[in-house]
Amino acid sequence: MPKELMNKKDIDRALMRMSHEIIEKNKGIEKLCLVGIQRGGVHLAKRLASKIQQIEKKEISVGSLDIAFYRDDLNIRKVQPVVRRTEVLFEVTDLKIILVDDVLFTGRSIRAALDALIDLGRPASIQLAVLIDRGHRELPIKADYVGKNIPTALSETVEVQLVEEGLEDRVILEKVSSEE
Amino acid sequence: MLTNKDLLGIKELSVEEINLILDTSAGFKDVLGRDIKKVPTLRGKTTVNLFFEPSTRTRTSFELAAKRLSTDVINFSVPTSSVVKGESLIDTALTVQALGADFIIIRHSSSGVPHLLAKKLRVSVINAGDGTNEHPTQALLDAFTIREKKGKIEGLEIAIVGDIAHSRVAKSNIYSLKKLGARLRLIGPPTLIPKEMEVMGIDIFHNMEDGLRDVDVLMMLRIQMERQGKGFFPSTEEYSRNWGLTLERLSLAKDEVIVMHPGPMNRGIEITSEIADGPRSVILEQVTNGLAVRMAVMYLLAGVKR
């Protein structure tokens, strides 16, 4: 049975807190932009942007990043990742980028995203915001803003479901039986 | 996901596979608009261009696509290779495979050569044009361009004009556009349009004016000079008079018609310069899109399990 870790309200509160943290740490939103990793990260980046705009009453740029071309597991994956759009329609050089993803796990997606971002220009800095940090890092990567830390077993999966994907807003934890 | 390790023709692809290639191409096109136009995706792989027929555009496009994906590229062209010493086609291909190639891009004047190599080799074989059979990446880049310009392909009125009978570009486009749900018409002299096309539910026009009415997309084919005087059409002058695209004729098509040409063009014969360089032409965009589509094909073939 899947276990619900966060509901709609929890997600919304976490994103609101993270928005305040982002503004606080950067002392406003001067030279700040958000870039979401396809797909879940893109929706979360847009939600964070609208909250930050509400608080600061100023526009903030949002982009989407696809990391398929930068993955380190293309030779070992069963299915080639689906290539989605990278739409960063602003110059990233000298900007402070908040990279947004739904779940932080091994850190390998973030490593790929860092390479992809640096190919777009030379940002002043990159910070990481994730809704869920489930542990089990395989690379020296750490999030700056975390919605919720959830200790998990490797045999479990964490899924962030969002209304933008036609689902109800919630985060669920599921056990994957090893016999399968 | 693609199911076959090779891209031999559009005939062998399903609608889902064609759409997957087109969707993936959009992601690669994003890369081509940047300062750093290269991604590390296929690092460590090797691409061999095996061209038994002269080609600058297609070979260059494949070479650049392969380089943008970070593969190493070797160009194996006929006059400098052992083929002139009498080495057989299959021996050449096996040699290339033994050198460690992952992709072989082949162009050959005989239809079916890529299919033969695909059976004999473990590596991915990509057909870059075989005889009068197919030129699949050209049809894919054409479909990608139409989709980008028109937002869809299904239900569009698309006309292909010229030497359909000898054109692998036309053949691949007919397979692809039929599969994607376009309404197709072929325009040209009766000697250059095979009769079987009619049974496929394609409208055939021998009169340019009738054929152009209300089309959304116009694909002009290159008239091959070597066919002149062989009984297919009397002269290039007469061909141009009857089937050449002029501004006056273009006005019969829809206002927002796009004009395509696979290149190289015979300006003043099948198409006038004012149209080729004019606002309805998407000819240079086809070239750019060709890179994105070829990158997408290589990326997807690399993911096919052997």
* Most extensive chain-chain interface: A-B, 19 and 21 residues
- Beta fraction of the residues of chain B? 5-15%
Helix content estimate of chain B: 25-40%
Instruction: Look at the structure and give the CATH class of chain A.
Output: Alpha Beta
Report the mean per-residue pLDDT of chain A as an integer.
94
How would you describe the overall organization of this protein?
The complex is a heterodimer of chains A (180) and B (306). Chain A is α/β, with parallel strands linked by helices and 180 residues long. In chain A, 26% of the residues lie in helices and 28% in strands. Chain A is built from 3 helices and 8 strands, in the order E-H-E-H-E-E-H-E-E-E-E. In chain A, the strands form 2 sheets. Chain A has a 5-stranded parallel sheet. In chain A, strands 1-8-7 form a 3-stranded antiparallel sheet. The mean pLDDT of chain A is 94. The mean pLDDT of chain B is 93. The A-B interface holds A 66, 68-70, 74, 77-80, 82-87, 115, 119-121 and B 1, 23-24, 26-28, 30-31, 34-36, 39-42, 296, 299-300, 302-303, 305.
